[in-house]
Design goal:
mainly alpha; two-stranded antiparallel sheet; two-stranded antiparallel ribbon; about 50% helix; globular
């Protein structure tokens, strides 16, 4: 026990009547870090500096709702099973957010924002991939505060001490001696996943610099790397979960999503093989018509990129084989 990693005995603090929940603070920290990284990558692609914030207005609320819906659907017993409480399905602060629901609904929000601004989704998805992984890495520490989602029992030096937990109060249960009740030491799957997310983010950044991942390839690589790591941590976890043919539902989802993302990445690389961008950076300004943003009107901030460029006339229009492919 002395060699084990500690866990908090409290995850909620009060400022007067206002509760400060560690789980929510970790998620907020992840959102801030993810937006900052995405903003830097988006500006490097020539995009409008404040556009990631516009996306967040749509993607973050929808992502949280989607994450909760996915969790409730894949683990319905606590809410709709015997002795369950359906109202607790709304208690997001108690934990229980499914990443695939967050990605799917968040992608819908990003698509809406991109559509309204006249951007294509794929370049923005490539920009957001490393930041999304960093956000997930920070968000996983909320599970540490809640003493949840740990793995099998172990006595390894990095084993995690887990307390008997009272979700209603956000505190460890105390024994007759007034000390927190310890259930044992377990694999810190939250830590494994957090470290894997950070490593995957670094791999995507390095791969992007080396091979210039475009047309959604960086995002596809994010999905491949994350699902590969998630498959391992999911196999270690011992919390209650629905199973199909002896495997947890999340393992099946991860396997299917990994294969689809891997195929998408390979197809995209082959389809766009040989393309070159003389400007040295990706083109998020592959604009599409939208009611809010006509195709002929560039966004504010693009004017600097257009300054100094010669006007292209019909007689000087490059051939189709020399143009970058706008579809991603």
């Amino acid at each position: 026990m002395s060699a084990a990693l500690p866990s908090p005995t409290q995850s909620v603090w009060y400022l007067g009547p206002v509760p400060l929940r560690a789980y929510a603070l970790c998620i907020l920290a992840g959102i801030v870090a993810g937006l900052w990284i995405t903003g830097r990558r988006w500006r490097a692609k020539g995009g409008r500096a404040d556009f990631p914030l516009d996306v967040a207005v749509w993607a973050v609320p929808l992502g949280v709702v989607g994450a909760r819906i996915y969790h409730v659907i894949t683990s319905p017993e606590a809410y709709f099973g015997p002795g369950g409480d359906p109202v607790r399905a709304l208690y997001v602060w108690e934990g229980g957010l499914g990443i695939w629901g967050a990605v799917a609904a968040g992608a819908l929000g990003a698509w809406i924002a991109c559509r309204r601004a006249g951007y294509r989704l794929a370049p923005f998805a490539d920009a957001v991939a490393p930041g999304l992984l960093v956000a997930q890495a920070l968000g996983r520490w909320g599970n540490w505060f809640n003493n949840e989602l740990y793995g099998r029992a172990t006595d390894l030096p990095w084993a995690l001490t887990i307390h008997d937990w009272d979700e209603a109060t956000g505190r460890a249960v105390t024994g007759a001696d007034g000390e927190p009740v310890v259930l044992g030491t377990f694999h810190p799957t939250f830590l494994y996943e957090s470290l894997w997310c950070l490593l995957s983010a670094a791999v995507i950044v390095l791969a992007d610099r080396r091979w210039r991942l475009r047309h959604g390839q960086a995002f596809a690589l994010y999905v491949v790397l994350y699902t590969a790591g998630r498959s391992v941590t999911e196999a270690l976890r011992i919390d209650e979960a629905n199973e199909i043919a002896g495997l947890r539902v999340n393992q099946w989802v991860s396997a299917v999503v990994l294969l689809v993302a891997l195929a998408a990445c390979v197809i995209s690389r082959r389809r766009h093989r040989g393309e070159r961008d003389g400007s040295g950076r990706d083109e998020p300004l592959e604009r599409v018509p939208s009611p809010q943003s006509p195709a002929a009107t560039p966004p504010a901030g693009d004017a600097e990129q257009q300054a100094g460029k010669p006007t292209v006339t019909e007689s000087s229009q490059p051939s189709s084989r020399d143009q970058d492919h706008p579809r991603s």
